[in-house]
Design goal:
The complex is a heterodimer of chains A (249) and B (404).
Chain A lengths: L1 E12 L3 E13 L4 E5 L6 H8 L7 E6 L2 E2 L4 H6 L1 E5 L10 H11 L4 H14 L15 H13 L5 E5 L7 H16 L3 E6 L2 H7 L2 E6 L2 E6 L1 H8 L4 H9 L8
Parallel strand pairs in A: 3-8, 3-9, 6-7, 7-8
Antiparallel strand pairs in A: 1-2, 1-4, 4-5, 9-10
Chain B lengths: L2 H16 L2 H35 L3 E5 L5 H9 L4 E3 L5 H6 L5 E4 L4 H7 L6 E4 L4 H28 L20 H32 L1 H6 L2 H5 L5 H37 L19 H28 L3 H21 L17 H11 L5 H26 L2 H4 L3
Parallel strand pairs in B: 1-2, 1-3
Antiparallel strand pairs in B: 3-4
Helix pairs in contact in B: 1-10, 2-7, 2-10, 7-10, 7-11, 7-12, 7-13, 10-11, 10-14, 11-12, 11-13, 11-14
The chains are: A alpha/beta (249), B mainly alpha (404).
């Protein structure tokens, strides 16, 4: 369960002054559901998700993951969520197994549980062929699997994906999409950000459209279609965002 | 404070560091090889140069000696110099290093000498040029002997004992214990190298664990794990400090071993005249150990300082450009301590780095001024704690971690 309440983040920029990257965003995301955060580049998607993952601290407002407040108990929040983005790389000089082990230990798993979990995940993701290969020698697909294993090692109830398919080829992107769907089917709470409309249509139970840090519209695909009188997701998005869109300078 | 998490982070960073070629080179290879290579190279070149210069029979010219065949013949037959036929451009020859020196005998030297007063014999040399100085020294010692022989002759003529010339003898003898002599010779340079090695050992890991992590995109990965930022920064810092300390320990080990080997190898024989005692260079284990103890707060200071600076950078390259000027800042106090006459005073004892260099110089000679040792150890610890506090604080700041 994720509940964001008036979540806001401002940055100080020397040239442009105060920037409201995320402006009083509130939403809720339930277990067994995928919440898709849709927006153009610089709309505030990454900042929102980074705040949920407690990598950034909100300027005001807050959010709760499984009942834990992101401001008051960031370490507990991190124990309950897995965070995956294109910016979360692997340690090049560790092997795939060492990488996953490291995160298991940091999550407080004891040696026996850790070994069991690793064997289970490596079997499921078919990773045994490159277990002891260093991460800098892995292919993109192998890296993605290792990253997935890294987020899953502590079996978190909440999964946060920040543009997880950005820059990946179709086959690798598909692995990720399938993985996201699997997370939902296992009853996890899933939130992910993207600007690819097809991914939204395929995956999301609820969609939030974000621009200039503000949540402009929210609902299921059906609700959005009815509200705006168009069928195509891209048309809906353009219709909602255009009045607010200023090209980033 | 959970030591477990700090330990997990430390162990992982250690695994990575041991697989990083650059860290291995700066931490293990540089301190172990630098001293023997520099030491062997330096003493090799020095002893070759000095040995050659001493072996050479310097060419000299004798000027204005037409009326004094006695002294000229004696000079010509002296085995330590090679008197070549006189030519008019002897000044140019000295300047062009064709001959090493020229000796000018004043007119009517022998006649005047017989009367009792014969003026001044001049030696023309190329000042600052070692071979020319050696030639002059040979001529001088010949002339002194010649003068003595003249005096002795006169004494004998006047029926006086020859001992009148030397009513007493003078002799120098070194009574400093060998390790003190070694300390006096090596102290400054060892303190300088210790500071440089402590810094150098910390530099690459400090950059790799901060800016390097940002550059590789693993910063966000690790920040999404439950480990707290304080534990993370402490685990990382400990690794940087380990690298710095290992570098310092290996340096002292290398100094200790190479100086003893050098002492026993006989390479130093070339540098002194026959019969003179050899300079003592071998450094005892007690001196090496006491310097290593001082290296502990020093490496904390450097590790935390470099860590904080490198944390600001977004890439390895950027971090290096921030740290390069720091090298100069560090080298200045380290070199000042090598200057003769700069000694520990209560004021200098609180100047960071300079105090450690000066103290190391003393420790190596086996002097233990406990009040200074405590003052300097504590003050360096205070600076180190300040730097570490800063590193931890900086690691909490989003504007530093996510600088764009």
């Amino acid at each position: 369960m994720i509940e964001a309440v008036n979540l806001s983040k401002t940055f100080q920029d020397k040239k442009r002054g105060e920037i409201r990257a995320v402006d009083s965003v509130s939403f809720a995301c339930r277990p067994g559901e995928i919440y898709g955060l849709l927006g153009a580049n610089g709309a505030g998607k990454t900042t929102t998700l980074r705040m949920l993952a407690t990598i950034l601290e909100p300027t005001s407002g807050t959010a709760r993951l499984c009942g834990h407040d992101i401001v008051e108990h960031p370490e507990r929040v991190r124990k309950h969520c897995g965070f995956l983005s294109t910016a979360t790389a692997l340690y090049p000089r560790l092997t795939a197994q060492e990488m996953v082990e490291y995160f298991g230990r940091l999550n407080g798993l004891d040696a026996t549980t850790l070994k069991k979990r690793i064997d289970e995940i490596f079997d499921r993701l078919d990773m045994n062929g490159f277990r002891d290969r260093r991460c800098d020698k892995l292919s993109t697909g192998m890296k993605q699997k290792t990253s997935i294993a890294r987020t899953l090692i502590h079996d978190p109830p909440v999964m946060i994906f920040d543009e997880p398919t950005l820059g990946l080829d179709i086959m690798t992107a598909r692995t990720i999409i399938e993985f996201i769907r699997e997370c939902r089917d296992r009853g996890k709470t899933v939130i992910f950000s993207t600007h690819v409309m097809r991914e939204v249509e395929k995956l999301c139970d609820t969609i939030g459209i974000i621009q200039n840090g503000q949540l402009l519209a929210e609902g299921t695909i059906e609700q959005l279609r009815q509200r705006h009188g168009v069928n195509d997701m891209e048309e809906i998005f353009v219709k909602i965002v255009t009045p607010h869109y200023q090209e980033a300078v | 404070m959970s030591l477990r998490n700090i330990g997990i982070v430390y162990r992982k960073e250690l695994t990575e560091a041991l697989r990083d070629r650059r860290t291995l080179i700066t931490t293990f290879l540089v301190p172990l090889l630098m001293i023997p290579v520099l030491g062997a190279g330096f003493t090799g070149v020095m002893s070759a140069v000095i040995g050659n210069a001493k072996k050479e029979k310097p060419k000299i010219m004798i000027i204005g000696s037409e009326d004094s065949p006695g002294v000229v013949d004696a000079l010509r037959t002296n085995p330590k110099i090679n008197a070549v036929p006189t030519s008019g451009d002897w000044k140019n020859l000295v300047v062009d290093k064709k001959i090493r020196a020229a000796v000018e005998i004043p007119p009517d030297f022998q006649t005047e000498l017989a009367k009792g007063q014969a003026g001044t014999v001049k030696i023309y040399i190329y000042g600052g040029e070692m071979k020319s100085e050696f030639a002059a020294a040979n001529i001088e010692s010949f002339l002194k002997e010649y003068r003595d022989s003249v005096v002795t002759e006169r004494l004998v003529t006047n029926h006086l004992p020859g001992e009148l010339l030397k009513p007493f003898a003078v002799r120098r003898q070194n009574i400093a214990p060998p390790e003190k002599e070694a300390g006096a010779i090596l102290g400054g340079i060892i303190a300088y190298m210790l500071i440089l090695m402590c810094l150098n050992g910390a530099m690459h890991p400090a950059i790799d664990l901060t800016a390097g992590e940002k550059e590789r995109g693993t910063m966000e990965t690790i920040l999404s794990s439950p480990v707290s930022r304080t534990h993370l920064v402490l685990g990382k810092f400990l690794l940087v400090m380990t690298a710095s300390l290992v570098t310092a320990v290996l340096l002292m080990f290398s100094v200790s071993v190479s100086s003893t080997v050098l002492q026993k190898s006989g390479a130093l024989n070339q540098m002194v005249d026959e019969g003179e005692p050899l300079p003592q260079l071998s450094l005892g284990p007690a001196a090496a150990a006491s310097v290593i103890v001082m290296a502990i707060p020093l490496s904390v200071l450097f590790s935390a300082g470099l860590f904080t600076i490198a944390l600001f950078a977004k890439s390895h390259k950027e971090a290096q450009s921030y740290i390069a000027p720091l090298m100069f800042l560090v080298v200045i106090p380290a070199i000042s301590a090598m200057l003769p006459g700069v000694e520990l005073t209560p004021k200098l004892a609180v100047v960071p780095l300079l105090n450690v260099s000066l103290l190391c110089k003393e420790l190596i000679t086996g002097e233990y001024h406990w009040n200074y040792i405590i003052l300097i150890f504590v003050s360096t610890c205070v600076y180190a704690a300040g730097a570490l506090y800063l590193a931890v604080k900086m690691f909490q700041r989003e504007s530093v971690l996510f600088r764009s």
